[in-house]
Amino acid sequence: MADTPVKDTARTEAFSDGVIAIAITILAFGIHVPTREESEAAGGLLNALAYHWPEYFGYFTSFLVILIMWINHHRLFRLFRCVDHNFLIINGLLLMCVSLIPFATDLVAEYLRQPEANIAAMVYCVLSLVIALLFQVLVRYAAHQRRLLMPSVRDETIAAILRQYRFGPVIYVVSIVLAALDARVGIGLIGLIALYFALPSHRDEIVRPTT
């Protein structure tokens, strides 16, 4: 029997918000507090803190990335009137990948000064690429024949979202190539992409539901 899209979106959005909130909180756990022994060995607390700069770099980059993902996820759910089984599966896969960002962040922080820094950065960039693709799949599935859209959402709004989203995967592929050459450049490009998606766009021009 075909799945009938009659479920309200509130529970799905609340669950998604919870997963994203946990992922963004876990990021802080990856920041190392220098011990007194480490501080003395480094010649002072300031030097010990400076030694762990990859952790701060990873934290701020990933915090921004997850924050922008949450903002975009929230904006998208303003488009949807209901969900169905397939939508929940796609959204679940998206959340699964988002929850792996703290792992990828720790990996980069641990290996950024090591010979295998490029591999760690490429893992981070590949994960970002998969998330970008899942965002596209989520929108395209919901918008196909307007199966899950609010009646008041214009076709132009969906077209604007998809136009903006189509550049993400391409840039993430570029970040993978750059990460293979220089880990810091590859991760830095991920941060720039997050800033791009933070800019105002046609996604904010969603028509309010009719009463």
Biggest sheet layout: none
The end-to-end span amounts to: 32 Å
What's the helical proportion of residues?
A: over 70%
Q: Beta fraction of the residues?
A: under 5%
Helical run tally: 10
On the 0 to 100 scale, the average pLDDT is 87
What characteristic shape results from the CA principal axes?
elongated
Rg calc? 20 Å
How do the SSEs run, as a string of H and E?
HHHHHHHHHH
Beta strands, count? 0
Number of domains: 1
Low-confidence segments: 202-211
Supply the key terms.
mainly alpha; 211 residues
Quick description:
This protein is mostly helical. It has one domain.
List the helices and strands and how they pair.
Layout: H1 10-29, H2 36-42, H3 45-51, H4 53-77, H5 85-98, H6 101-111, H7 117-143, H8 155-165, H9 167-181, H10 183-198
What would you note in describing this structure?
It is a single chain. With about 210 residues, the chain is mainly α. About 75% of the residues lie in helices and about 0% in strands. Helix 4 packs antiparallel against helix 6. The protein is elongated and about 65 Å long.
